[in-house]
């Protein structure tokens, strides 16, 4: 009669739960910002009250004789202006979104102090107190540490694996938790980096288009003084595109660097938490 062996109990690969979150809203936000930019350009900057000779047409009225003020002149910068306004609004939107997300991911207190508290509790073999610290800290470092501590606690009572295998299991748990946290931190930064490059080019494109219109008008006008005045006005209007594009790009670059620096700090805290868990277990539970 064949020997019947008991079926081995399959342990869960990881206790980390996958965070399901769609990115459709992130892709919809730039489109909405461009639409809002067009509304601002068409109905605020291009209001008939801003011009001495209001033009006809709905999408892009050909108003003439801008009154004093920056809005009428920006309107005459052309159709690239609403796109640039949309880029600026997109940058502002994702700056607020990333600021809130990264601030939450940073936790409620200093990550360095948090790791030291966990080290103290683990040195006293008080895993439950270390888990309580994770609940207080929250954030990405707290989440990764908590996931690793659950596996840490599980490995303490495991009698089948060697110490080296237990350490590897804890390390794997930390790596899997980290792989779920980092994409959340870096999400939507691609919009800031892209706009940082594209906004300047859009500004230059708007300037070139404005210069083409100005020189075309100059070629059609034979009155010397009037032609020179029209050319200088056209150049001034065209340069609004450059100023808006460069300003938007600079804004995006500054905050992109700020956010990546903060993310690097959180990533360092995550790496330190994983090192703490593995070294603590290896030294206390040989």
Structural commentary:
It is a single chain. By secondary structure, the chain is mostly helical. Helix content is 75%, strand content 2%. The chain has one domain (28-48, 67-284). It contains nine helices and two strands. Helix 1 packs across helix 3 (80-105), helix 4 packs parallel to helix 9 and helix 8 runs antiparallel to helix 9 (224-284).
> Major sheet: size, sense and barrel closure?
2 strands, antiparallel
Average pLDDT works out at: 86
What's the number of extended β-strand segments?
A: 2
Low-confidence stretches: 1-14
Enumerate how many helices there are, as a single number. 9
Q: What is the spatial order of strands in the main beta sheet?
A: 1-2
Order of helices and strands: HEEHHHHHHHH
Structural class: mainly alpha
Helix content: over 70%
Radius of gyration: 30 Å
Assess the beta-strand content as a share of residues: under 5%
What distance lies between the first and last C-alpha atoms, to the nearest angstrom? 41 Å
* Gross morphology: rod-shaped
**How many structural domains does the protein architecture include?**
1
Key terms:
286 residues, mainly alpha, two-stranded antiparallel sheet, 9 helices, 75% helix, rod-shaped, disordered N terminus
Q: Summary?
A:
By secondary structure, the protein is mostly helical. It is 75% helix and 2% strand.
Helices and strands in order, then pairings?
Blueprint (H helix, E strand, L loop, with lengths): L23 H22 L5 E3 L10 E3 L3 H6 L4 H26 L5 H13 L3 H11 L1 H19 L5 H24 L2 H32 L3 H61 L2
Antiparallel strand pairs: 1-2
Helix pairs in contact: 1-3, 3-8, 3-9, 4-5, 4-9, 5-6, 6-7, 6-9, 7-9, 8-9
């Amino acid at each position: 009669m064949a020997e019947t062996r008991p079926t081995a109990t399959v342990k869960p690969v990881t206790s980390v739960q996958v965070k399901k979150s769609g990115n459709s809203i992130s892709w919809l936000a730039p489109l909405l910002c461009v639409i809002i930019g067009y509304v601002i350009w068409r109905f605020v900057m291009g209001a008939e009250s801003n011009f001495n000779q209001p033009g006809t047409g709905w999408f892009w009225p050909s108003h003439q004789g801008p009154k004093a003020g920056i809005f009428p002149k920006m309107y005459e910068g052309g159709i690239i202006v609403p796109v640039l306004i949309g880029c600026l609004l997109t940058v502002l939107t994702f700056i607020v979104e990333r600021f809130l997300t990264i601030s939450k991911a940073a936790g409620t207190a200093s990550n360095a102090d948090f790791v030291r508290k966990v080290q103290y509790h683990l040195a006293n073999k008080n895993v439950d107190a270390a888990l309580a610290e994770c609940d207080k800290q929250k954030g990405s470092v707290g989440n990764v540490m908590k996931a690793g501590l659950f596996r840490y606690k599980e490995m303490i009572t495991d009698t089948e694996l060697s110490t080296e295998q237990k350490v590897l299991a804890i390390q794997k748990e930390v790596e899997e938790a980290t792989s779920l946290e980092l994409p959340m931190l870096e999400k939507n930064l691609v919009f800031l980096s892209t706009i940082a490059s594209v906004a300047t080019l859009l500004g230059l494109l708007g300037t070139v288009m404005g210069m083409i219109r100005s020189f075309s008008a100059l070629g059609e006008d034979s009155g010397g003084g009037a032609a020179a005045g029209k050319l200088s006005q056209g150049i001034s209007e065209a340069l609004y595109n450059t100023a808006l594009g460069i300003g938007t790009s600079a804004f995006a670059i500054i905050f992109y660097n700020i956010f990546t620096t903060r993310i690097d700090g959180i990533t360092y805290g995550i790496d330190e938490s994983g090192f703490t868990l593995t070294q603590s277990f290896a030294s206390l539970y040989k």
